[in-house]
Design goal:
Strand content: 25-35%
Largest sheet: 7 strands, antiparallel
Helix content: 25-40%
Radius of gyration: 22 Å
Distance between the termini: 71 Å
Number of strands: 15
CATH superfamily of the largest domain: PPM-type phosphatase domain
CATH architecture of the largest domain: 4-Layer Sandwich
Number of helices: 13
Order of helices and strands: EEEHHEEEEEHHEEHHHEEHHHHEEEHH
Mean pLDDT: 78
CATH topology of the largest domain: Phosphatase 2c, domain 1
């Protein structure tokens, strides 16, 4: 019996025409694919969206496990925002998808969306957890009125807002050749469903289609960050070998935007074809590994945590406490202390090695505070 799988993927993310940074993040890590749209003061939204997609990297499990993984990262985002003033109020949407049998499983929080294109007909699969979304469901607004509503960007549910979160988990029957679109509201706020359907019906390479969607949003005004992931459903027989797909996490691209050549905002995606293809995952897997490393090393300068080095010393790390692969961590040590973790009490290890995200100052202060209060914990200098 033929089994369903993701046959082809495509993706693109862009800062848009008006924003200074990109708080969106995306994940291509078969069997899970996701889009997250961060929010919060300063650059905290970028931290939240990166945490959300990184938590799903390498996921293995079913519907319940997917929901649990999102509940877990919700708590981590909420805890981090409460522990560090620089992250206060951060949160993110999440729309994650995976194939399970003959169904597409969606786990959804916020106003990012999932669509299904089948036989030329486009259908929205998720409900927006937003103020205007609630008003539409109550019959107080029409979809056309919602597009112009001044509070259309106000969301009613997000990861990190509270210690617990309600997650919409959907099972949608899918068929071979179905096309799935996951996107942030930077796309749907600028491009209506009719235009989305027209572009997607054009067919062709999914990376190119993703870029066309982003370009359409920028031409319409590009008022927000724009991210989309496209998935083509295919089949394989049980005896066939499933093709291996390298797992890819794309973190917020603020640093890349800052380093890229400046072009007319309206033509950013078209004129900057190299960047569009870089972020669209067009086969340069090695290059994408570099993109992730650059995004962490440069773009996540404001995200730090306390951890332990391989030789057991307390250190402050920059980035996120996750590994894209065994050879590609999303963090690097920026300060290594003289304190060995094996001399800490169990309570001190739990308090310090909790991977709590914060600013460089807050992470360094935790280590410095321990060194000041317990100077005897320093590693004694070696005698000649």
């Amino acid at each position: 019996m033929p089994l369903l799988l993701i046959r082809e993927t495509g993706a693109c993310s862009d800062v848009g025409r008006l924003r200074q940074s990109n708080e969106d993040a995306l994940l291509l890590s078969d069997p899970v694919f996701a889009v997250a749209d961060g929010m919060g003061g300063a650059r905290a939204g970028e931290v939240a969206s990166a945490m959300a997609v990184a938590a799903l990297h390498g996921f293995q499990g079913g519907e319940q496990q997917l929901a649990q993984a999102i509940e877990d990262v919700n708590l981590r985002i909420h805890t981090a925002s409460q522990a560090d003033a620089s992250l206060l109020g951060m949160g993110t949407t999440i729309t994650a998808a995976m194939v399970d049998g003959a169904a597409l499983v969606l786990a959804h929080v916020g106003d990012s969306r999932a669509y299904l294109l089948r036989a030329g007909q486009l259908r929205q699969l998720t409900d927006d957890h937003s103020l205007v979304g609630e008003l539409i469901r109550r019959g107080a607004l029409t979809p056309a009125e919602a597009e112009r509503h001044p509070q259309r960007s106000v969301i009613t549910r997000a990861l990190g807002a509270d210690a617990r979160v309600d997650i919409d988990v959907l099972r949608v029957p899918v068929e071979a050749d179905d096309l799935i679109l996951l996107c942030s509201d930077g796309l749907t706020g600028m491009v209506g469903d009719a235009e989305l359907g027209r572009i997607l019906r054009g067919g062709g390479n999914l990376d190119q289609l993703a870029q066309e969607l982003v370009l359409a949003a920028n031409r319409a005004g590009g008022e927000d960050n724009i991210t989309c992931v496209l998935l083509r459903i295919g089949t394989r027989n049980e005896e066939d070998t499933e093709p291996e797909r390298p797992p890819i996490v794309i973190l917020p691209t603020t640093a890349l935007d800052a380093r890229a050549p400046q072009a007319s905002p309206a033509d950013r995606v078209a004129a900057r074809g190299g960047r569009g293809r870089l972020l669209a995952i067009i086969g340069g897997v090695a290059a994408l590994g570099i993109v992730v490393a650059v995004a962490v090393a440069i773009g996540l300068q404001w995200a730090h945590f306390v951890g332990a080095t391989d030789d057991g010393r307390l250190a402050v790390y920059q980035g996120l406490p996750f590994d894209v692969t065994a050879d590609l961590p999303l963090y690097r040590a920026v300060s290594i202390s003289d304190i060995r973790t094996d001399v800490l009490s169990a309570e001190e290890r739990r308090a310090l090695l909790d991977h709590r995200l914060g600013s460089l100052d807050s992470a360094q202060a935790r280590v410095d505070g321990l060194m000041a209060s317990s100077p005897w914990l320093r590693t004694p200098p070696s005698t000649p």
